Amino acid sequence: MIAAIHQPQFMPWLGYFDKMDRCDVFIFLDNVQYKKNEYQNRNRVKTSWGWQWLTVPVHYRFTQKINEVLIDNSVDWQKRHLHALQTNYGKSLYFERYIGLFREFYHQKEHVISKVNIDSVILLKEMLGIKSEIATASEMEGLRDEPNLRLIDICKRLGADTYIAGRDGNIYMNLEMFKDAGINVIFQEFRHPVYRQVFDKFEYFMSAIDLIFNCGEESMDIIRKENGQ
Q: I want to staple 216 with a disulfide (CB 3.0 to 4.6 A). Which of 94, 106, 193, 224 is the partner?
């Protein structure tokens, strides 16, 4: 069994879903420290002038874990996000097919950023047609705190004998520990596809929202073809 483990991000980019597509089970690592100003409460969509953030406002205190960070619902961020999608993708080929699902997502009133992030990933996962199973680290008891051992514990708990790491995983991972635990580590080598977008000049590293609105049911095939699947 192949496992991949990653912090839950908000409306992630294509590489996130390439990793998910390559594994049998994808685990949301929601019980580690929240990282401010990264992708745990925001992501990017294309605009006529380049790109813009879709940001979920949060109340964050240093050392809080992702599943402890509360959303600032005094701000109508859902309305802002939907307005941005309408403005930037209203003329995209598949806007009408998918916008209703985004409206349903933004209708929810969650209070914790990890829940919104996981729901956003599941929304895009289903649109892309990815079949991998999912699990959540915070629902697993007895995981060790040391980062390598935590990942090993999760793999063992799920019966995975192979772990997909990010491209630079060898920088921070102790591969000998995985070898001793009988877990083979492979590294993701993601190649970003170029596809039709609204507006001029291709923008890389957008949320998967961009690919879905522009390419619809072909989206996952575009990722797979570029990455040799």
A: 94
DSSP classification of residue 40: S
**Mean pLDDT for the stretch of residues 191-212:** 97
Q: What residue ranges define each of the domains in the chain, with the CATH number in brackets?
A: 2-226 (3.40.50)
Count of beta carbons in the 10 Å neighbourhood of residue 188: 17
Q: Which residues of 113-149 are buried (b: 16+ CB within 10 A; e: fewer)?
A: bbbbbbebbebbbebbebebeeebbbeeeebeeeebe
Burial class (CB in 10 A: 0-12, 13-18, 19+), 102: buried
Spatial CB neighbours of 61, under 8 Å, sequence gap ≥ 6: none
Torsion of CA 110, 28, 132, 21, to 10 degrees: 110
pLDDT band at residue 40 using 50, 70 and 90 as cut-offs = very high
Task: List all residues 6 or more positions away from 108 whose beta carbon is below 8 Å from its beta carbon.
Answer: 116, 119
Residue 164 contacts residue 4 (beta carbons within 8 Å):
yes
| Helices 113-128 + 219-226 axis angle, to 10 | 90
